[in-house]
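[Discussion] Sanity-checking designs against the backbone

I'm trying to build intuition for which residues belong where. Below is a structure token string of 90 positions. I'd appreciate it if someone posts a full sequence so I can compare it with mine line by line.
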């Protein structure tokens, strides 16, 4: 499983912006080889970042977060682990 290319991410994000999540999930599955659950989680992660205005890899200065990268690679357990140096603000 691999992270999608910048071009593939652009297509996925555009589909999400157009509220075509099914198409975004299909694109994610095609470019990463992930299963349905992993692709759905990745698309939901990107959609949440868009809603909250967080930078995505497609915005200037944006880079894939460790969580997003782990989700795209199908490593859901790694994606749920705490990140070193982050405050616990639950």
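Best answer:
Here's mine. Compare freely.
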């Amino acid at each position: 499983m691999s992270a999608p290319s910048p071009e593939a991410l652009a297509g996925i994000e555009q589909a999400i912006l157009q509220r075509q999540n099914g198409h975004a999930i299909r694109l994610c599955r095609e470019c990463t080889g992930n299963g349905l659950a992993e692709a759905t989680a990745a698309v939901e992660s990107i959609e949440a970042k868009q809603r909250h205005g967080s930078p995505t890899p497609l915005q200037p200065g944006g880079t894939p977060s460790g969580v997003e990268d782990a989700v795209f690679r199908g490593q859901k357990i790694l994606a749920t682990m705490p990140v070193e140096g982050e405050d616990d603000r639950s």
